[in-house]
Amino acid sequence: MVVQHRGNRRPGYLLAAGVFAVGMAGTTLPTPLYGLYQEEIGFSELIVTVVFAVYAVGVITALLLAGNQSDQVGRRPVILVALGLSAASDLCFLFQDGLPLLFAGRLLSGFSAGLLSGAATAAVLELAPPNRRTRAGFAATAANLGGVGCGPLVAGMLAQYAPEPLHLPFLVHLALVALACVPAWLLPETVAHPRRPRWNPQGMALPPEVRGVFPSAAIAAFAGFALLGLFTAVAPSFVAETLHVHDLALSGAVTFSAFLASTLGQSLTSRIGARRSLPVGCLTLVVGLLLVGASLLVEALALLLAGALIGGLGQGLAFRAGLTAVGEAAPSKHRGGAISAFFVIAYAGIALPVVGVGALTLALGLRNAGLVFTVVVTVLALCVGLYLLYRPPVPTATSERGE
């Protein structure tokens, strides 16, 4: 059961979204810095993607083992633990002297994102009054991907124009996390009867109400997150090595543009409608992927930026539509777990294709590996988009509204 807090002067859903965004920003701070780490430590492009994939492994592990904990102990305690893990990740990067602490920092960051994805999304939705539920859905998804997009933008600018490029971004984020803990502590608890945590990993179990909408929504999220994974893991290397642009601020801005466009796509979902946004988002994603591939063929930064914007727009449309469909279909007492399962598939889309790019780089080179990636994900997104045009997702049962 979920408790709504109407007329409460304590922080509401917008502040919860702000806390969510701060936590997620830390997950992509290293994106424009990988080249500097390569120079300092000395490792291959494959290791860059493996370091990135360790983050995704952390996310998926947290979602599978503890994705439903906020349904039991409450949203607020899980959010606070996630912020603590984010701070611990920052400390790993601040004191790193080689790959072990890089791996540890990315793993802790993944744990943090995994906990936040389910708990903070549910908290934002549940803290909103009924007449602002649509806005809350946008606030949750915008905080998630908007926060992730701000990470490389801020880190790239600080690394390019300020001293201590491998330390200052994490010091700034550590201070923001400390500030975010205050509203997080004051958030009203929306779980009516929180109880002590029990070790009950959810795996991928889904309530029956969600099973009609989940498969197509999750596969669309997989394809969209594969594009975002490309921009957060290896796009800076594409910019530097293939396009010959060596500006960390610009590199971070290219990655940020994909997430900015995603946020715009999310804002359009309610106007288009969730049922139409899923196929339209997938097909728009296809156009973006084709532009990314073209940018690698002709070595044009403008095409890469266009691919980031159009692909991000499609990802945002499909992502918010899928998340909204899953969140609305799930019963309130299982909502955190259902949302976490949705994010498991999405983050698998970040990890698996990107590691494949890193492995292919050893045999084909960075440019050709990127081209193979775009072909594979384009085919997947096209197939899902065409399928959804003819068979839009339909809930199998009416969800309970214990809100």
Number of helices: 15
Helicity, in percent?
over 70%
- Report mean pLDDT, rounded to a whole number: 84
Q: Give the biggest sheet.
A: none
Kindly state the number of beta strands.
Answer: 0
Folded structure, characterized:
This protein is mainly α and 403 residues long. It contains 15 helices and no strands. Helix 9 (214-233) runs parallel beside helix 12 (274-298). It is globular and about 55 Å long. The N and C termini lie close together (7 Å).
What are the salient characteristics of this protein?
403 residues; 76% helix; globular
Fold topology:
Blueprint: H1 13-25, H2 34-41, H3 45-66, H4 69-73, H5 75-94, H6 99-127, H7 133-161, H8 168-186, H9 214-233, H10 235-242, H11 248-272, H12 274-298, H13 301-329, H14 335-364, H15 366-390
Quickly describe the structure.
The protein has 15 helices and no strands. The chain has helices spanning 13-25, 34-41, 45-66, 69-73, 75-94, 99-127, 133-161, 168-186, 214-233, 235-242, 248-272, 274-298, 301-329, 335-364, 366-390.
